[in-house]
Amino acid sequence: MLSPPASIRALAFHRRLPLPHPLLLPPRPPPRLGPARSIMPFSTHPSDQEEASEAEEEPLPAAGDAGEVSHEEWQRWGTTSPLPDAVAVVVRELLEMEAAAGEKMRFGGVGSKLKGDFKDIEDKKHRAVYEKLADSDKKLQYYSARQIGCRLLGSRGYLCQKCWLPMEDCMCSNILPCKLWRGIKFWLYMHPKDFLRQNNSGKLLWQVFGIQAAQLCLFGIQEHEDIMWDAFQRSGKGKISFLYPNKSSVPKSVSDLEFDGSALTSDLDVVGSRDEPFNFVLLDGTWSNSAALYRRLKERWTALWGEEDIPCISLSTLTASVMHKLRPQPAWDRTCTAAAAAGLLWELHMRPDLSAFELEKQAEAVECSLDILLDALTARRIRLGRSITRKQRHNRNCV
């Protein structure tokens, strides 16, 4: 099935017309704020059991090119940071083991997992290194670096470095970039198992808004986490909210957020040194992994500011993401990361003090990118002769 031409997509973007695909939901109007149930604004990708079934379907990617990962190659995957030291060490060790074994590494399945005899060799070495690490934080850092290192090598020459889809399914030319209001910034706090995942929706945010406006922070990668928390300290704790509902002792919504006068400027390009943006953190991982993401955020928040309760907000809208058609969530009140970001932008737009910043257009840009991702994933499954529907994992009605 061919993707709609760019001209039709542009029309759908500006007029909110339905894209010409039979699986897509019709475009929804701006959400109505009210006492509706809160949605879970972080990605709830398939469970571990679902990942196992998908792994059998995925073709084996081509073996990675020889050579270590450079800083430039690392940054092309969607980050501004230098190559993390722990990831560089893991990649170097894998390449050295490959040379010593005289066998090319093979990867396949969800997360570009190692395959064949080399997997057994690497697994024994990994366990030996892991057991020697007495500190739990070092164990986490090594675990995250190993996950990311394997994904980097397994995805070379196979996935597009911008959209994380196989080269033949690249959707980058269909994405319409859009400027995000400089008064806010997104942080994608991503679990390493979601890094380079083809159906991950968080990647759409920096594809649409750029890697400075929507910044990637990988869980357990020290350099990434330090960059994010340094930004939080510059902005101050009053300009940080985590989209993770029902975790604060006093539940908050978008209407409770306070934007100071210096941030309320219509100029998208000029921000003074004192005008740090409001930081919105989206937890990007499965439902089970999000608990670990939240715990680590809470521990660092408490260590930095001495407060047990971190500022979490809920969205008051309840609408199904178009990704439900291909990748159902565990329940209708949970949604993918990009849909949560779009919902947040819609609710910010509904505030009278923010209505001048065209946040509704920015929300539409994210929703349009979700349609494009769904098209690309659906077309790929059809071409490979796979089902384009999934077994429902919830019994709730979204009405």
From TrEMBL:
Sequence ranges assigned to domain DTW in this UniProt record: 156-386
Biased composition (Pro residues): 19-33
Keyword flag Cell membrane: no
InterPro entries in the cross-refs: DTW, DTWD2/TAPT
Reaction(s) this enzyme catalyzes, per UniProt: a uridine in tRNA + S-adenosyl-L-methionine = a 3-[(3S)-3-amino-3-carboxypropyl]uridine in tRNA + S-methyl-5'-thioadenosine + H(+)
Biological process according to GO: tRNA processing
Alphabetically ordered keywords of this record: S-adenosyl-L-methionine, Transferase, tRNA processing
Keyword S-adenosyl-L-methionine: yes
Enzyme class: transferase
GO MF annotations in UniProt: tRNA-uridine aminocarboxypropyltransferase activity
Stored Pfam families: DTW
Top-level lineage group: Eukaryota
Record's protein name: tRNA-uridine aminocarboxypropyltransferase
